[in-house]
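Ticket #4471: complex job returned nothing on first submit. Input attached below:
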Amino acid sequence: MTMSERQTLLRIEDLHARVEGKQILNGLTLEVAAGEVHALMGPNGSGKSTLAYVLAGRPGYEVTAGRVLFDGRDLLTLAPEERARAGLFLGFQYPVEIPGVNNVYLLKAAVNAARKKCGLPEVDAFEFLAMVREKMKLMRMEDSFLSRGVNEGFSGGEKKRNEILQMLVLEPRLAVLDETDSGLDIDALKVVAAGVNSQRSPERACLLITHYQRLLEYVAPDFVHVLVRGRIARSGDRTLALELERRGYDWVAGEAA
Amino acid sequence: MSSLNSALAERLAAEHAGTAAALGEPATSAETRRRALEALLASGLPTSRDENWKYANLRPLEKLRYLPASLAAPASAPVTVAVLPPALPDHARYVFVDGVLAPALSAPLDATAATLALQDGASASPSSASPDERFALLNAAFAVQSFEVRLAASCSAQIELLFVASGDSAQGASYPRLKLEVAPGARLALIERHLSAAETASFVNSTVTVALDAGASLSHYRLQDLSSRSVLFDTLSASLARSAVYRLHAAATGGQSARSTMKVRLAGERAELALGVAALGDRQQVQDIYALVEHAAPNARTEQIFRGIAAARSRVAFNGKIVVAAGAHGTDSRQSLKGLLAGPEAEIDVRPQLEIYTDDVRCSHGATAGKLDEQMLFYLLSRGLSPEVAQRLLKWAFLGDVIARTDLPALRRQIEARLAGQLRDEALRELL
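Support reply: We reran it on our side without changes. The output follows.
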């Protein structure tokens, strides 16, 4: 694939951001095109999660310089819910438990919010449920999950599978998955990977944020980037992840210093 | 204790004399009524200086008319079935308009298990009452009718009572008066609902007395949906004998100013109380709830849950006091009180109080007052929900702990619809 054929979905230019007065992102530049899977790796504290939250619009994450274009629009001027409706999805590293808010209510409200923006009528409840059940099968989730509170009392693995289920139901154009693989055993990892792979299509893209190379054995990325101290220190194809695994982050960090 | 100002005392006495004359009742009930008034005049009405009354709105008391509305000129429009909520399946229904039974609107119980008695005025009145029960004296002094439900041993019944306020407080007051007696092993499900026939500014002062005999069970749902200009003072006092089980669920959404005083005495060993209260305040509403639970016997249990949301400029208060008497060893009590502040000028007061006079008890309590959780909010926004829908969903979830305890599906749907209505959310209603 050459650059001219790529249809850019996300363009991050020289992004600087701080959290609670502390500068975390220091000139991050990254471009993700439709159809691509990018892996963003890096040591703890390098700014991976900060980037995810900045993209999703979490309050308290202050952009001090640079810009982000999503599908040609200035992403940073949009409210979090507008970003979601425009097709951006954040899979949380630590999904929030919301006791009392029913899982299926949330899914339905989320889908209807996106449909409303497109001028579409609300989903048919019956068809919607059938569609959700189909995707739950892929995620190996039991039916009882539908009536439970959002992430309420879920194990770590269940929470991550629930994030992927939401992604499958919402069918975002860009999924930013923040360490969705952390804390998963090998079986859960395979289920999550199958979910991510089922979403791959020429129209959609995925930014996989991960600390380890493990997930990338199951979801083959087109590009791998290493984030060090808030900027991309090195980019390459999937062999970069293997090299990182062998040589450790110090290798890149030392070069970037 | 406070005394009445003389102008109010004179007015109470005069309106009381007018009530007694209009009723022309037998000497014994007139005497009961008179004694209640005397006790009230001696003890006075509460003021905001009283410890357990500082969150209540007592200002309307100066201006209210105390004469029973049923003795005043008839309401402009008679109450019709149309203003009543849909009947619940398998429940007898009794409708009271301004505290007086309206047989035409009622669907009586056909079983003979329960004895129902309608009395003129109060059958008995304490010559004195604790400072927290002074509104019960007011009720005993003015109530036109008293409705009594007695359920025989090992029987069961399901009854819905609707207390409709139709009059304006300029015309007079409504004094619902209810007495429940459940014999050993009997089971009663009772719905007590207070509502308005129209957007009138009614004054309602109700009294409920509950006596549960050994092993008796009562599921009691109290729904307060009065019009937004109404004033309510209600007093409930209950006594539980050995192994009696009392499930008391209250949801307060209506009224301009409402105060609910509940006193439950666990008098017998292994008695059980589950008290769940949900209260919503909006505009400039005041919802004030005081619940006193007395553990007087060993090995009894209490579970108390309160969830209150104060929006706009409203005030929502819950004062939950649990007293464990000497000798009530093995007491197990749990309190979970949570308030949610949903408006910059709103006020939430949650106050757990525990007094323990014995060893060997398990008492836990938690009380929180705060705003919506920012992390939960952001999670919902990140899924595309608008801030309005996300906030309402979280408020809804906040009340869930209490609502989930309503085990009558038809009633639960009505409560949910009412709460969703109060939260002004059409989208939420669709989800139900």
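Chain A touches chain B through 31 residues (CB under 8 Å). Closing as resolved unless it happens again.
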